[in-house]
Write a structure and sequence with these properties.
Elements lengths: L3 E4 L5 H19 L4 H4 L2 H7 L1 E7 L2 E10 L4 E8 L8 H16 L3 E7 L3 H9 L3 E8 L2 E9 L4
Length: about 150
Amino acid sequence: MPLTLRRAEAGDAAQVRDLTRAAYAPWATMLGREPLPMRADYDRAVQEHRIDMAYDNDTLVGLIELVDEPEALLIENVAVRPDLQGGGIGTFLMRHAEAVARAIGTPVLRLYTNGAFAVNIVLYQRLGYAITREEQGPWGTVVHMRKPVPEQ
């Protein structure tokens, strides 16, 4: 599926919120609470972070939220429409994050995820991310991961 990317603007916050809530809904059932991305302030995030939205023709199918930090590019959120999860859109978005990091000269990508999201951890490891630490937080185990930005 040929996807196109467009950077989110202020008027896209509701779409970003809706897609993220839908993508994380299955995790809410498993955890017994909403994961943090379901509760984020996307009006603010669209203003302060880079959110790139992936489209199949005119249909929003996924997004990635990136935060430029002094030492790394943080992948804050990856969300894919539930009926399309497992079809390569998440991998496409993660590869896009690598391209963004290269373009801005950031040598490292980092992310964190809930330890209960084992399938996501496996995906990130398959993409070259290594677990750097795990910590207990109020919402369970937080798994921190990093990856050097690959050359083309």
